[in-house]
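Q: For a teaching session next week I want to show students how multiple molecules come together into a single three-dimensional assembly. I've collected the sequence lines for a complex. Could you give me the predicted structure tokens for the whole thing so I can convert them for display?
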Amino acid sequence: MAISEVSKFHIFAHLSIKESLLNELQKLGFLEIIQIEEKEEFCGWNNLDDSSNSPSSASLNDVKFCIDFLSNYANEEDKGIKSLFTTKKTYSYDELEKIEQQHNFSVLHAQCKKLDNELNELNLQENRLNAVKAEIERWQELELDLSKIDDSKHIKFILGSIAKNSFSNLALGIEQQVGASIIQLVGEEKNRVNMIIITLVENTPKIEPLLQQYLFETFKYSHTFTGTPKQILKTIKEQLLGIEKKRREMERNLKKLHSKNQFIYPLYDFLFIIQEKEETKKYLKKSEKTLAIRGWVQNKDIPKLQKRLKEKFSAYEVSFSSPKEDEQIPVALKNTYIVKPFETITELYSLPGYYEIDPTPILSIFYFVFFGLALSDVGYGATLAIITYFALKRLDLGEGGKKFLRLLHYCGLSAITGGILLGSWFGDILNYLPPMFDGLKIFLMQKLPLINPTKNPIPLLILSLTLGVIQIYTGIILKFLDNVRKGKLIDGLMDQISWLSLLTGIILVLLKGVLPLFLERLSLILAYAGIITIVLTQGRGQKNILLKLGGGILALYDISGYFSDVLSYSRLFALGLATGVLGQMFNMVATMFHIPYIGFFVTLLILVIGHTFNLLMSGLGSFIHDARLQYVEFFSKFYEAGGIPFRPFTLRTLYTKIKDIEE
Amino acid sequence: MSDGIILAYLGAALAIGLAGSGSAIGVGIAGTTGTGLMTEDPSKFGLVLILQAIPGTQGIYGLLVGFLVLTKIGVFAGSPASLTVKQGLMILYACLPIAIAGFFSAIYQGKTSAGSIGLIARRPEEVGKAVVMPAMVETYAVLALLSSILMLNGVEV
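A: Of course. Below is the structure for the complete assembly, covering every listed component.
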């Protein structure tokens, strides 16, 4: 259906135009270049491998490093959400090419590396200082020069900490052992105390066993700072301040450096383009004077390719061949502008095989309708539609992002429709309008809607299930058409029409009483015809006659599968009801507060928060469950996935836009 | 106040409380895995958040049923209806499907979501499949919600 037809192209060209030809193909941006297989025709050809003479001196990684490093110092307005709104700069291919010559990247790179090292060094210093600070802070009360503590020949200072309850025991022990020594407490923490023991040097061997016994932790001062702890802390503080100051100055300079060297962004893009080109060269073959390129092109692009080649080159030969069945043919979807956003849903699942059906056009209708039923609120739908409308106008997004936003825009429109149908406007906010709007309220909430689910939910449930039946029928019919298309009419009759007949029969039986009499008779005929065909044909893969019959009877069990498939669509009903009721609940909670003066703002705040939450949760749920219905209930009936996406050789950019590429 | 209304209150409390607890556990399970992934790759925050939010719906369904019960018995209107014990019990039973199935399905959905988060950690291109797996579990919460609403709808007040 809407799978783009592709052809294989073969280009032979003189080696001298190798670079310009590849550049041109990359600019065209719609060819997928593939590996040339070693077959007889290319016997004796070599791989085109000249990655050694890379045309560019700056490496992509170096540029990436500079971007990562400098972009931390972007101006505030270039950061965060605002950056979404800044449009990417546009360059022509020739301008991009010249950027490398116009600017001296190696100088900038060296500068960035140096600054990065310096910053790291600063951080290291800071960490070291902070560690010393933490160590010394415990000794603040000590009035001793820590660096000179071990200088004395006769007196020994022992610093350390000990558990609080062991302190007095230790002090007592030392007094008994050596007599004259000074033991002092210097500050305490949770359950430990810091202490200093001053004693004669010759006494130390006697004290040490005691220290071990009471688990005394000796503090050894091993840093270069001099002075009492208080003085040292002061020095450290000054040094830390110095570091902070230096860092701030560096940051200022880095900001300047960043704004002066914006060229790194387009440079990165250009180098990336070159890298892709170089990588593509691996797929090509060359003889002494000839270059061979092979790949896929969508048929709609063939005239453009021929025209462009004719304009620019003369020493070439191009031919096209249609794909063979056993080849891995890439798949590109081709849909009208309106249906295109729904390709996102198909792609999220998996692309169809090249010879299969593209489900997108039919899926788009179901997806649209189901989403509307699931979110089903005019307020939420309008919010979604308006936000995505402005986002599409203002944001500079890639093609995928645009497609997704357009999908959400459609979803919003569909929810508006659903909301009108169910009479839901931000839940039941219309009920809270002053009485003068009663006419409007009655029109919007009672006259216009077809269903009022909070009063009587059954019609909405029936609608959901009916839509399910329609989608399942569509799936089965699509499979039948697919079988017919592939020349398997008999299979189609046995596998799909039999089920359609049985299912129709069952539905008509269920509707008994509502329908005219002749349909009732018809229903039984249809059901029996279906059952008989299924029992007789579904076991045809088996060899044994008994197994054939058994297989046929077993296939009837699938009926429970269809039943649960239909029931699964009740989620549309549940989601639709949940959105509306949750909205009503927030409205009610918001209007419960009658606080003087600020009451209005409280109400407004609750309304905004509540409805935003509901929109996000219900929107997410609608999106996921809608997709699930397509994937599980709809696709399982006919869809053959497994296509490999068409990946064109093109100018891919991250930071800039390129002017002269083809649309 | 009639006896029946106490039973109806119990029903609403069970629907909101149990389904909500299940969702909290489920969201918690998915969240722990999600934060684990984000330590490796913080850029996946958006996807992780979506997968984490999926088991949250049972709590909303429970709240929905609770709300419908309270509306039905006229709590918000300011004049609670007088219910017989039979009516109260019917309302209580109507709340049970979403209370029970909501509680358990949210937990298992949380586990499936956690698995899906693991899937996108390794294969980010498979978002579509990762999101559908937890949605399979939700089916049963949806069916329970459906039953609760239909049962509730059948109680004459």
